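hiii so um. not sure if this is the right channel but i have a protein structure encoded as tokens and i wanna go backwards to a sequence. like what aa goes where. can anyone help
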């Protein structure tokens, strides 16, 4: 099995207790995204208020046997039938509140 990080960030993946880093995945350089359209629905004191509409996923490779792709939750949600897509698990922070990794991966 291979896991490919298709997010723009290095992923430090921790065990289920968040006490031990078990894997680090460097970004592969390809970042699938959902096409986005911003429709102005209101204006408040000169500040535009948008309805952000998300559409088709772009830059996502075809499914391959024994390969998992780590993508954003938005991309995963847009293609629920793809069982090869994973997302970072719960965010893990250090004592200063800075993100340091995630607890596992999720469907």
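sure thing!! here u go:
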């Amino acid at each position: 099995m291979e896991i490919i990080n298709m997010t723009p960030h290095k992923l430090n993946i921790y065990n289920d207790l968040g006490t031990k880093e078990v894997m680090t995945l460097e970004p592969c350089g390809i970042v699938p995204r959902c096409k986005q359209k911003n429709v102005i629905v209101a204006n408040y004191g000169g500040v535009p208020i948008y309805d952000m509409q998300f559409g088709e996923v772009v830059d996502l490779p075809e499914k391959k046997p024994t390969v998992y792709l780590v993508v954003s939750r938005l991309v995963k949600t847009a293609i629920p039938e793809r069982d090869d897509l994973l997302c970072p698990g719960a965010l893990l922070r250090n004592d200063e509140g800075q993100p340091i990794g995630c607890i596992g991966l999720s469907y």
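oh and The chain is about 5% helix and 55% strand.
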